[in-house]
Design a protein that fits this description.
Helix content: over 70%
Structural class: mainly alpha
Distance between the termini: 56 Å
Oligomer: single chain
Order of helices and strands: HHHHHHHHH
Shape: elongated
CATH class of the largest domain: Mainly Alpha
Largest sheet: none
CATH topology of the largest domain: Tetracycline Repressor, domain 2
Number of domains: 2
CATH superfamily of the largest domain: Tetracycline Repressor, domain 2
Strand content: under 5%
Radius of gyration: 18 Å
Number of helices: 9
Number of strands: 0
Length: 189
C-alpha cells in the first residue's frame, strides 16, 4: 500500500481545518494535530501557514471543472452547467463551510499578502474563463452586449459566491441554484 506523504497529509488536513475554523482561527498546531504529524514537520514542508494556505487555494482552484465552459451547447447552458457543478462541489465538501475560495477571500485582508494575491489571481483566472463563454454568447446574440463580458462574468461569480455565503449561514444550499438562474436570466439579450 502506498504511503501518504506528510506534505499531503498536512494539505488535506489543513483544508478541512481551514474550512471549519477559518484561516485566522486555525493554528499550525491544529493543522498538525489533524494530520497526525509532529508540529516540527510542518516547517519541513511549508515556510508559514500563509504558504500552506496558498497551496490549498491553488489546489482547490485546479480541482474546479471549467471544461464545461468550453464544451458544446449554448453559452447560457454551458454557464449554467458550470455553476451547477460548482454548487455540487460545495455540497460535497459541506454547505456549512461554503466555497473554500470565498472563505479565503473573506479573510484575505488579515491572512496576508500571499493569500490575498493567490485568491485574487484565481478569481481573475476564473473570471476570464467565464468571460470567454459570455463573450461567445454575446457574439451569438444570446447574451446582452450592454456590458463587457468580463463585467458580466464577475457579476455571475459574485452572485454565486454571495449566494453560497448566504447558504453557509443557513446550512441550506437550496436557493443557490435559484440565485444562479436569476443571474443568468439577467444576462439574456
Amino acid at each position: 500500500m502506498p504511503q501518504v506523504s506528510v506534505k499531503n497529509k498536512l494539505v488535506e488536513s489543513a483544508e478541512d481545518v481551514f474550512r471549519r475554523q477559518g484561516f485566522n482561527g486555525a493554528s499550525v498546531q491544529d493543522i498538525t494535530s489533524a494530520a497526525g504529524v509532529p508540529k516540527g514537520s510542518f516547517y519541513n514542508h511549508f515556510e508559514s501557514k500563509q504558504a500552506l494556505a496558498v497551496e490549498i487555494v491553488r489546489r482547490y482552484a485546479h480541482g474546479a471543472n471549467h471544461a464545461v465552459l468550453n464544451g458544446d451547447g449554448s453559452a447560457l447552458e454551458r454557464l449554467r452547467a458550470h455553476f451547477l457543478s460548482m454548487i455540487e462541489r460545495t455540497r460535497d465538501t459541506g454547505v456549512e463551510f461554503g466555497c473554500l475560495l470565498g472563505t479565503f477571500a473573506g479573510e484575505s485582508s488579515s491572512a496576508g499578502d500571499q493569500v490575498r494575491t493567490a485568491v485574487r489571481e484565481i478569481l481573475d483566472d476564473w473570471t476570464e474563463d467565464v468571460a470567454r463563454t459570455v463573450r461567445a454568447g454575446q457574439e451569438a446574440g444570446e447574451i446582452t452586449s450592454a456590458r463587457p463580458a468580463r463585467t458580466l462574468a464577475a457579476f455571475l461569480i459574485d452572485s454565486f459566491e454571495g449566494a453560497t455565503l448566504r447558504a453557509k449561514t443557513m446550512g441550506d444550499q437550496s436557493t443557490v441554484a435559484e440565485q444562479v438562474e436569476i443571474a443568468l436570466g439577467a444576462l439574456r439579450a
